[in-house]
Amino acid sequence: YALAECEKKLQNKVVMITAGPTVEAIDPVRYISNHSSGKMGYALARAAQLEGAEVRLVSGPVSLRDPHGVTTVRVTSAKQMFDYVKSNIADVDVFIGCAAVADYTPVEVASQKIKKNDDEMTLKLKRNPDILAWVGEQQATRFVVGFAAESQSLKEFALKKLQKKKLDLICANDISQQGLGFNSDNNQLLLLYRDGQEKLLDIATKDALAADIMQEIGEHLKQRS
Ligand code: CTP
Ligand code: CA
């Protein structure tokens, strides 16, 4: 469907979204990654585009098609995702970190396939950059949104991330609930704002939730200006 021009909430806004997992190579055939279908991030990209925004979607490997009218950039590792974000963030009004970024990456990538030898093997990992926290640190008027998938203490852990990463909004997702999140088409999200406001978006499709989140962001941008 098409929204009338006047109803579009993100006209003239640039929205950048990270989506999907990142994949960290161990050797030419093995990798470390996270569960993530990319569905939520892609739904957000479509919703932002429908609200009139210029959308930049930076995505790890997923089996989803590029959303119509959205600049979609495919990356593999967290480092590649971070490099794209740093190089293309200057004019971004709204940043949404929705990717399941691998927290650690192998210290060394073996150039040849590692052969199995002993009964145990140890892999040395180093921390990846926190892309969302880096964006939050930038002194900008940008609206910064994060996601938090938690298996316990949902609100407490999500609020900690909101503060630590200097976000305006965090969308908290209780992954202990069966049939929600990850590869599912449905989700339930608790929205927690920097100013203490909160809003529970009840179980719905990721497309419906994405539309709600974009409406919410549009309202907050309007209040700011
Ligand atoms: N995130 C990011 N870069 C990272 C790690 C996380 O941009 N290296 C972003 C995610 O896209 C998400 C938010 O930070 O929007 C929270 O990710 P999450 O994995 O829940 O939190 P972490 O800070 O990594 O903490 P932990 O995994 O220990 O719970
Ligand atoms: Ca993490």
Q: What is this structure, in a nutshell?
A:
27% of the residues lie in helices and 28% in strands. It is of the alpha/beta class.
Element layout with pairings:
Blueprint: E1 14-19, E2 24-27, E3 30-32, H1 39-50, E4 54-59, E5 71-74, H2 78-88, E6 94-97, E7 104-106, E8 125-127, H3 131-137, E9 143-150, H4 154-164, E10 169-174, E11 186-193, E12 198-205, H5 206-224
Parallel strand pairs: 1-4, 1-6, 4-5, 6-9, 9-10
Antiparallel strand pairs: 2-3, 7-8, 10-11, 11-12
Provide keyphrases for this structure.
single chain, 225 residues, alpha/beta, 8-stranded mixed beta sheet, two-stranded antiparallel ribbon, 27% helix, 28% strand, binds cytidine-5'-triphosphate, binds calcium ion
Question: Which structural class matches the secondary elements?
Answer: alpha/beta
Major beta sheet summary: 8 strands, mixed
CATH topology: Rossmann fold
CATH architecture: 3-Layer(aba) Sandwich
Summed up, the helix count is 5
The CATH superfamily is known as: CoaB-like
Strand composition percent: 25-35%
Q: Tell me, briefly, the overall form.
A: globular
Number of strands: 12
Describe this structure in words.
- One of its GO terms (cellular component) is phosphopantothenoylcysteine decarboxylase complex.
- The structure is a single chain.
- With 225 residues, this protein is α/β, with parallel strands linked by helices.
- The protein has helices spanning 39-50, 78-88, 131-137, 154-164, 206-224; strands spanning 14-19, 24-27, 30-32, 54-59, 71-74, 94-97, 104-106, 125-127, 143-150, 169-174, 186-193, 198-205.
- It has a single domain (10-106, 123-224), classed as CoaB-like (Rossmann fold), CATH 3.40.50.
- Helix content is 27%, strand content 28%.
- The strands form 3 sheets. The chain has an 8-stranded mixed β-sheet, sandwiched between helices.
- The two termini are 28 Å apart.
- The mean pLDDT is 94.
- Bound molecules: cytidine-5'-triphosphate (CTP) and calcium ion.
- Cytidine-5'-triphosphate is lined by residues 18, 78, 97-99, 101, 103, 128, 130-132, 146-149, 161.
- Cytidine-5'-triphosphate binds next to helix 3 and strand 9.
